[in-house]
Every structure is written in structure tokens, then in C-alpha cells.
Write a structure and sequence with these properties.
Number of helices: 3
Distance between the termini: 101 Å
Strand content: under 5%
Helix content: over 70%
Order of helices and strands: HHH
Number of strands: 0
Shape: rod-shaped
Mean pLDDT: 75
Low-confidence stretches: none
């Protein structure tokens, strides 16, 4: 016949092991959440840099064309029409505002 104290000890050990396993999983979950947060921050920083570079290139392209400079100025004078809105409207290929045969600078 088995010793009752052995059963109690085995049961306590099993409960402790389960509790420790739950704690380990919780720590792993928190650590991986921190990893994702760090990766998200790095990705956001890279995207912010790339967006800034693209915005600068768009501004340079507009600045190189006198008609686009004038158009951008008009669009930016509209309340709420900042550089992003004006660039989007200028770049819209479906726009029929600009004739295809306009003189090139």
C-alpha cells in the first residue's frame, strides 16, 4: 500500500510545477510582447524616415515645375489644403484638370 504522505507530497509538487509553468509562460508572454513593441517602434521609425524622404522628393518635383508650383500655391491657399493634400491632388492621374499637351518647362 502506498504511503499517504507520498501522495500529498506528489500532489503538492504537481501543483507547484503547474504554478511555476504558468509563471514561466506569463513571463515569456510579457517578454515577447516587449519584443513586438520594440519591433513595432523600429518599424515605425523606419517608416517615418521613408515618408519624410518621399515627401521631400515630392516637394522637389513640384518645385521643379513652375505650373505645379502655382497650382500647389492655389491648393494650399484653400483652408485645410496643406502640402499633403495639394501633392495628392496634383499627383492624381485620373484628374482631367491638366491637359496632356501642356507645354513642358
Amino acid at each position: 500500500m502506498r504511503d499517504q504522505s507520498f501522495d500529498i507530497e506528489a500532489s503538492a509538487t504537481c501543483r507547484n510545477a503547474k504554478a511555476l509553468l504558468a509563471q514561466i509562460k506569463a513571463h515569456e508572454k510579457r517578454a515577447s510582447a516587449g519584443l513586438w513593441t520594440g519591433m513595432d517602434m523600429e518599424l515605425k521609425a523606419l517608416l517615418d524616415i521613408r515618408i519624410s524622404e518621399l515627401e521631400a522628393r515630392i516637394e522637389q518635383a513640384i518645385a521643379a515645375d513652375g505650373i505645379l508650383v502655382e497650382t500647389a500655391g492655389i491648393l494650399r491657399s484653400i483652408p485645410g489644403g496643406g502640402p499633403v493634400v495639394s501633392a495628392m491632388l496634383i499627383a492624381d492621374p485620373s484628374s482631367r484638370r491638366y491637359p496632356q499637351n501642356r507645354p513642358q518647362p
